[in-house]
Amino acid sequence: MERTLFTEEHDLFRKNVRAWVDREIVPFRDTWEEANIVPRELWRNAGAQGYLCCWMEEAWGGPGADFLYSVIVCEELARARASGVAFGLHSDIVVPYLHSFGTDEQKRRWLPGCARGELITAVAMTEPSTGSDLAAIRTTAIRDGDHYVLNGQKTFISNGHLCDLVVVAAKTDPRADPPHSGVSLLVVEAGTPGFNKGRLLKKMGMKSQDTAEMYFEDCRVPVKNLLGDEGGGFYYLMQKLQQERLLVGIGCQTAAESVLEMTVRYCQERTAFGKPISHFQNTQFRLVEMATEVEIGRHFLDRLLIDHVAGKNVLKETCMSKWWHSDMLQRVADQCLQFYGGYGYMLEYEICKAFLDARVQSIFAGTNEIMKIVVARQMGL
Ligand SMILES: Cc1cc2nc3c(=O)[nH]c(=O)nc-3n(C[C@H](O)[C@H](O)[C@H](O)COP(=O)(O)OP(=O)(O)OC[C@H]3O[C@@H](n4cnc5c(N)ncnc54)[C@H](O)[C@@H]3O)c2cc1C
């Protein structure tokens, strides 16, 4: 399908990003998967190329382009199955909190480093006892003079080890009624006494993504690191979740396209009973069904991107995309793996890793069940 949302400049940018990803990331994926982390140098390299925070104005140290450039970076990483390189989380999920809700002083302090890849960011909402029910978090940040004293534990935090700045959701008013009105966002800098990063978590997929626990023990965070208003944290998170869900949709759609393309090639090359397996009617039907779903997914997503960039309220549609595109990728990855037979079960095959990477997509950024709850509400149910 010809895509209409990109300009010639975007296309040229994509060509450069693709060449860079193929050169700087693809040859090292296995090493980084072993290490469960990507090197910090990669971030600086990306920053120097203008591949981080593409949408950020030059005045704040960004490349001064638009969100579609971020979309291209996200798509090219997904195409190359660079599943541990969390540029999207940084550039298009966490940094926008600093950009939208930070004071000028905070922005001056942090944004240029974020765009250069010198400051890597993370967001810490999830706790061992609660994920979907964000208002039930137990981490507290109690005001004491010019500081908040932060106590609590977070888990499953992406960029958890690499991060220099983490936006932490904490209760500044643990007795607030309703509970979500007591949630605030604090920016905690790595190295602050009382902030400890826990172990790197071993995962079934996305193995080079550093996912970690975090501990805060009487961690004194300056009041000047509060983002926005005290008690506004829940609303800020809700505002920005639309783009986070959209990024999941983008990654899943691109991954599905690339998995399918790879599988079509394999089916044409692999022979059984004296002919390519692509000549069996079952193979053709399944590949056609998947190609149809992928095509439908692309149309829906590109429409959604156009509306999102235009600033329209697409809350319902982004939740639809998040659950549908992640489910679709999992169906496609599972069926494609089947065509690889025993090779599909071998970790040295890309299809196997793609299948494992896909599994988390229906879980993080709000589970698919939570997405359907939001859509149901939007439908007035
Ligand atoms: C690889 C990875 C990276 C992550 N990165 C981050 C990160 O950077 N920052 C961060 O803060 N978090 C992160 N998370 C956490 C992730 O967002 C949570 O795991 C997710 O929101 C679900 O929370 P939970 O695991 O506590 O599951 P729970 O909330 O305990 O849910 C368990 C099950 O119950 C279902 N459920 C819950 N409530 C309802 C309901 N009302 N109706 C129907 N079903 C319901 C859920 O859909 C799910 O199937 C990450 C997770 C993973 C696996």
Overall structural class, as computed from helix and strand content, comes to: alpha+beta
Mean pLDDT: 97
Taking all Cα atoms into account, the compactness measure Rg is 21 Å
Largest sheet: 4 strands, mixed
Shape: globular
What fraction strand? 15-25%
Associated small molecules: flavin-adenine dinucleotide
Q: What is the string of helix and strand elements?
A: HHHHHHEEEEEEEEHEEHHHH
Low-confidence stretches: none
Helix content: 40-55%
Total strands: the figure is 10
What distance lies between the first and last C-alpha atoms, to the nearest angstrom? Answer: 35 Å
Helical region count?
A: 11
Strand order of the largest sheet: 1-4-5-8
